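User: I'm writing a tutorial on reading structure tokens. Could you give me a worked example: one chain, its sequence, then its tokens, then a sentence or two explaining what the tokens reveal?
Assistant: Sure. Here is the example chain.
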Amino acid sequence: MAVSASSPQVSHRQKPRLGFLDIWNMSFGFLGIQFGFALQNANVSRIFETLGANVDDIPILWVAAPLTGLIIQPIVGYFSDRTWTRLGRRRPYFLAGAVLASLALFVMPNSPTLWFAAGMLWIMDASINITMEPFRAFVGDNLPSEQRTTGFAMQSFFIGTGAIVASSLPYIMTNWFDVPNQAGEGVIPNSVKWSFYLGGAVFLAAVLWTVVKSKEYPPEELNSFEENAEEAHAGTSPAISAAHYTATGKKQIRKGSIITLIGLALTVWLSTQNLNKELYVFSLGTAIVGLLFIASGYLQKISRYENGFVTIMNDFENMPTTMKQLAVVQFFSWFALFAMWIYMTPAVTSWVYGTTDTTSKLYNDGADWVGLCMGIYNGVAALVAFGIPVLARQTSRRVAHLVCLVAGGASLLSIYFLSDPTYLMVSMVGIGIAWASILSVPYAMLAGSLPASKMGYYMGVFNFFIVIPQIVAAALLGFLVKVLFGGEPIYALVLGGVSMILAGLLSLRVNDRD
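And here are its predicted structure tokens:
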């Protein structure tokens, strides 16, 4: 049953500080979520190549996943802001997403064809997104401002812990339990299959732990806290005038028309060029965003009232300044991460191991080593997660984020110079430091700038600036690798390293205040 989250209160109080065990329980579900993400990130390109994908076609096969997140996360956030059930506000979404994601993890390694695997990636990523984003808002709901950095650091700890185990599972299956990591042409190895089965079980169990062991503040109690009080009273103010909606509608129609024309013009131009189909994703996406603004504008201009879709579009247009500044940082850091996730296995197996034959033992040993090393960077993230709040207190959150991102960017660049795969473990240390910061510091800075009654929605919108760089990466990297980089995916990692260092420098301009 949906309940208004803006009822006025007579007196207001501070949110109570939570104990270590409470923060542990409310974050534990991220252990399972990261099992899903880590298995996906470390093995999906391997699955695609096994089922016959060319290396320059891999980005377009990935693009459905971030597109799904772009749509789902703000919608889930919007509705979770307005939901109250016997399970609570955010927890129903945790549970539904976990069930769907676990089922997808069981099916994915049994994909019979490439198109089926691409479709399963879509479903799996959508389900993980349904689970993940309410967890971010969960921290903002339950913790006072001074504990939020610790809360997001705890999530980073579980993300790192889950990922190091999940990323290493194919290696562990083969080297500890003698599960074969080779199969016939077009057949996914048993080591990968059993890793996904175990990951699906852990995903569901960890999220169930958080659902059972944690609690949420009812809307009335949440609005009794001082940091929410002003907004709670504002929610009882008179309705916004029809003239406001008319003016806003006209502005959005003009803006949407310009964006749509740019997107359509770019699409028409691309159709006359002999370029990769991945580039159409970006141009068509631009046109679709423009059409959404036009639709919102007409609804406000003609109907002169606000509904769910109009609220989503208006809040997106009027996001806080800190969120806009963080958006740019997120764009370049996640572009780098997506380049790494797509191309780490093809780059290391071809550049360091010297093979592209997916049926060879050398290729599969290299792919297993990549999975193990990606687990290492997640393990590093788990270890340094609680050191980042200390660094932030000694300097600032902006400086802490800069230091971590520069370490990650330099480590990505270092892979170009490797001749011995053993040293890939060293590169993973810097990437792990960056990963720990990416998972915690931006969200800690963001949470203090958001209105409490829209925490879930804005956390979902913030995912745009994770998804958009993934779409750009998927649209451009395949083209760049094929046309400019001579088919060598290692240069995608070099580009990612430069992008991550730039993200660190841009973090210095973020207005970080509650």
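What the tokens reveal: Residues 170 and 192 are 5 Å apart (CA to CA). The chain has two domains: 25-219+316-509, 241-305.
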